[in-house]
Amino acid sequence: MALRWYFDFVSPFAYLHWQQLKALPQFERIIPVPIALGAVLHHLGNLGPAEIPAKRRFTYRQVLWQAQQQGVPLRFPPGHPFNPLAALRLCLAAGATPASVDILFNWIWRDGHAADSAAALALPGAMLDVAHVAEAISAPDVKEQLRRNTDAAIAAGVFGVPTLSIDGELYWGNDAHALMQAVLADPDTVQGGELDRVDTLPVAVQRSR
């Protein structure tokens, strides 16, 4: 199984899902892939949930409820949504390892710190042995890697985060984790019968005036 996990630090649901992934027996085979969610949404012509007032209110309540249900501490950073590019690039500069993902998610979503600038990320940068955060996140190769990751995610059909790709099939959202577990245990879980039929259903849209 090829397992790739697409995420952006701006998403609290990605933080919660990361905690669930770490408990999977397949965790060591999962490749974390930092991507710029804003670029994905722009490509699709979509707004982020926090950009729609009523959806923002619901989303924040939902994610706090999910955190409580999972027993995971969650504290929002000073502002949200925030620009996550600095955190994403720092993660890549540190090798996008599970340890780097852990440190940055904990900094932002467990402890509630800002993560939108080199100055804000100085301490987690030191924890990641990145001596000069400003230089690291402005390095051309790091910026290019984030662009490549995001372009590859778009090409793969990713439409949101967190998304786990299991042999190219996409499973989206912290609340879909049980489905991901089922598919990891048995890939035939989502094949056959009605599951095959719905893949070929025509789109029937009626627009009201």
Task: Kindly describe this structure.
The mean pLDDT is 96. The protein has a 4-stranded mixed beta sheet with strand order 2-1-3-4, with helices on both faces. It is built from 10 helices and 4 strands. A hairpin with a 2-residue loop joins strand 3 and strand 4 (169-172). By secondary structure, it is α+β, with helices and mostly antiparallel strands.
Q: Low-confidence parts lasting 5 or more residues at pLDDT below 50?
A: none
Distance between the termini: 47 Å
- What is the string of SSEs from the N terminus onward? EHEHHHHHHHEEHH
Mean pLDDT across all amino acids = 96
Q: Tell me the total number of β-strands.
A: 4
Question: Main beta sheet: strand number and arrangement?
Answer: 4 strands, mixed
In which range does the helix fraction lie? 40-55%
Number of helices: 10
Q: Structural class of the secondary structure composition? A: alpha+beta
Shape: globular
Strand content: 5-15%
